[in-house]
Amino acid sequence: EAESDYAVAVKYIYDEYPGNPNGSDYNAAALCSKDGRHLVMMPHLERSIFPWQNAYYPFMNRKNDVTPWMEAFINAKEWLEEQK
């Protein structure tokens, strides 16, 4: 199997821990269905909303109330509201 056989939507930066915490093939962190409507992720976004939940969070951003991952939930909520 080749990486092109999968719809890899998000990749880890490195091949090994801690950059790729689960050792996934092709550094895949998320896969997407061909139609783009379904996304599966290994990083648990719901467990990384706050800076203190992250093993690594850049010092310059430590004063943030929430991490940039919160935007994923905001975008999902807005999309769902548009679909009503």
Describe this structure as you would to a colleague.
This protein has 84 residues and is α+β, with helices and mostly antiparallel strands. The protein has two domains: 1-43, no CATH class; 44-84, no CATH class. It contains one helix and three strands, in the order E-E-E-H. The chain has one helix at 70-82; strands at 8-11, 28-32, 39-41. A three-stranded antiparallel sheet has the order 1-2-3, with no helix packed on it. The longest helix has 13 residues, at 70-82. It is flat, with a radius of gyration of 15 Å. The N and C termini lie far apart (40 Å). The relative contact order is 0.12.
Question: How is the topology of this model organized?
Answer:
Elements: E1 8-11, E2 28-32, E3 39-41, H1 70-82
Antiparallel strand pairs: 1-2, 2-3
Summarize the structure.
By secondary structure, the protein is an alpha+beta fold.
Helix content: 10-25%
* Structural class estimated from helices and strands: alpha+beta
Instruction: Kindly report the spatial arrangement of strands forming the biggest sheet.
Output: 1-2-3
Q: Give the DSSP E fraction (strand runs of 2 or more residues).
A: 5-15%
Number of strands: 3
Order of helices and strands: EEEH
The largest sheet is: 3 strands, antiparallel
SS summary, helix count: 1
User: Ranges with pLDDT <50 over ≥5 residues?
Assistant: none
Overall domain count: 2
Mean residue pLDDT = 84
What Rg, in angstroms, do the CA atoms define?
A: 15 Å
- The coarse silhouette is flat
Alpha-carbon distance between the termini? 40 Å
